[in-house]
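FAQ: What does the model actually see?

It sees only this:
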Amino acid sequence: MGIQDNYNFAPAIGIAGALADSGNHDIRTMVAHEPIKPGQALVRCSAFPSKVRLPHVNQATITLSGAALDASDTLTSIVNGVTVANTFVSTEAAQVIAHEALIEAIPGISAVVTSARVITVTAENDTPLSCTTAVGGGATTVVTVVDGCADAFYGLAVYTGIMHPKPYPGTVIYDKATFVTGGTLTDEVVTFTVNGTALTAVTFTTSHANTMGLLKAMLLSAADIIAVTVDTNTLTIYAPVGRSLTVSAAITGTIATSTITQLTQDPNYGVVQYNAEDSIAVLRKGRLNATSEDAAVVTDTVYMRFKTSGVNAPGGIRTDADTATAVAATGLNFDSAGAAGGIVVLEVNLP
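And it is asked to produce this:
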């Protein structure tokens, strides 16, 4: 008989938000300002110091380039839904200063001319910022607006037992499929194939509703299905966390028609989170598992996302600014490598 002479002592990969070890940790109890998922990067609310929120766009830089503004040229900005505009005032510099004053007058907004052709706009009191600016009046001046984030990294959301799961527990997108009969079942035989495996055929028994129940039970017997719901003529079939799902069906009998639609599940299904006003555990010192948006190594700088880009939402972790949608998180380092979309260990070291 063979004898095992080697062992893998590497710890199993954890889930986002779980503590990476039993070492020293500084965990603060705060209040969630908004829904927050475990493993996300957090900032402290300026208006409510006992609360934490996700990073967001709260700064914008308006920059003029090219030809100078001149007579009849206009500047129009829309800042958090408020429109301000002014026309040329003797010199471009005077017009820029006047425009800055109009933005500064918007409640909850501050603005400053940071150089001759640049205005920096900041939203106050944890308010997200939306800012657009355009030139008009025949101007050939070019204006660009770049979103930014003035937030400082405060900590990471820790996975605990007090969060709120949505209907099917998990942390990643499910696959699902819907099966719709062509009408009320009366004498049919239905055979499902799930991920290449044919299930036992189900024959109409007693009534349409009863037969749909039998189909649900048969589907639930498949290893690749975690849940099935029934709504009159429709069966909705869910795969377990992280698994793909391919379903087909053959139906014979009076109503020999049906449709199968493959769907990608709502990404919020199965996402465990803290809701707004929940007590939330925030890691300020120690090591935690988190999901990295891109491939990472331990020498990479950690950035926290403040602006949505594709499927990547604020609070995400990555290795670069991603075209001005993420900022460096001071006090946060990679402590392990990981693939894009995979789990990495982060080390937090904040005072």
